[in-house]
Each structure stands twice: as structure tokens, then as C-alpha cells.
Amino acid sequence: MSEETVTVLIRTADKTKKAEVTLPRSMTANDLIAASKQNWVLPEEADYQLVNVTKGRLLPPKQFLEIEHVSDGDELEVQPFHQHGC
Fold first, then answer.
1. Rounded CA gap, 76 and 67, in Å?
2. 85 pLDDT tier (thresholds 50, 70, 90)
3. How many Å apart are CA 17 and CA 81, to the nearest integer?
4. CB-hemisphere CA count at 13 Å for 86?
5. Which CATH number characterizes residue 39's domain?
6. Which of 51, 53, 57, 59 makes an SS bond possible with 63, Cβ 3.0 to 4.6 Å?
7. Number of domains the chain is built from
């Protein structure tokens, strides 16, 4: 592996969909959520967040997949969430 890519397991919160992928570290959490929604045909009306379940931390939407936040072999979970308010 190069320092420019990271290999992770990405899955849905219900664990019905998962894939091991190698991604560029220049990808953001939001980019990965969008690709997952498209590839897995996830409901468009839901909002999603990306959680590194290996490290137990939420990745903010604009967070890049940097070494400090995501390591090879980490499990990332695309989780639906509900926003409150307007």
C-alpha cells in the first residue's frame, strides 16, 4: 500500500452490505457516503454519516481519509441519522 491510499472495509449500519475497498486519501467522508449511496442504492431521502467503528469516531463530512483518522484495515460504517429542526 502507498501512503496515498487506504484499504478499509465499508459497510452499512445493518451490515447487509459491505465491501473491502482501496481508496485515495484525498477522498472525503462525504465523497465516500455519496459513492456508497449510489453503489448500494441507499434511500436518497435519508441523511448519512460515516463512522470509523474501529476507532470509535465520527468522521465529519469534509474530513479527508488521512492517516490520523483512517488506517488500513479499519471498518467504516455508513449510518443513517435524523436531523432535528428546520
1. 14
2. low
3. 17
4. 0
5. 3.10.20.90
6. 59
7. 1
Measuring CA to CA, how many Å separate 76 from each of 1, 32, 66, 79, 84? Answer: 18, 10, 13, 9, 24
The string over 50-59, giving b where at least 16 C-beta atoms fall within 10 Å of a residue's C-beta and e elsewhere, is bbbeeeeeeb
Give the length of the chain.
86
- Under the banding of pLDDT at 50, 70 and 90, the label for residue 2 is low
State how far the Cα of 63 lies from the Cα of 18, in Å rounded to an integer.
Answer: 21
- pTM of this structure: 0.90
What is the extent of the structural domain holding 13? 5-81
Residue 68 identity: E
Q: What residues have CB less than 8 Å from 34, skipping those under 6 apart?
A: none
Residue 29 is classified by DSSP as H
